[in-house]
Amino acid sequence: MSTAKTSGNKVDTGRRRFLIAATSVVSAVGAGFVAVPFLESWEPSERAKNAGAPVEVNFKKLETGRLLTVGWQSKPVWVLKRTKTQLADLPKNDDRLRDPNSDVASQQPPYAKNEYRSRKADLLVLVGICTHLGCVPTYRPDIGPEDLGADWLGGFFCPCHSSRYDLAGRVFKGVPAPLNLLVPDYYYVNDDVILIGESGGKA
Of 10, 49, 120, 161, which is the active-site residue? Predict the structure, then answer.
């Protein structure tokens, strides 16, 4: 009887060791398959790698007075070709603006610290995100609309909390937004193309 018990114990022990070893191997292999995609998820995706890359914009077909929206760093960037009237009206807003001279240096590159907030007068480039809570304002080029008042000369209106900006992206007084709209780094590749995201180039 005792021999049979001893023999049975040896068989059970052997099976137990085999099952433990097999389970360990399978678990290790399984963990390996789980770990690979998990570790790969730490690597930035191609989309993430490209998110900060400069964006080239051809504005040759952009009509005067019209706004073009492009994506850069997951943000909307506006390219507006302003009319002569819109440019002439800009100084009329100065007394009603919080920062008419663009003195907050963080809101534009040095070459855009001018009356037009741009490298060239007619073409305006802005990040289309309200400086209050990050909503996207709407382009309102209409003059004196009923909802914005007779003194409205065109600009950008944020529907979230009624912040207002003129056609240089300068914020009005008495609204929630504290800063002018951001002018990103950009330069002219040629007469029809700008590169948003870099400050190189001669213009």
Answer: 161
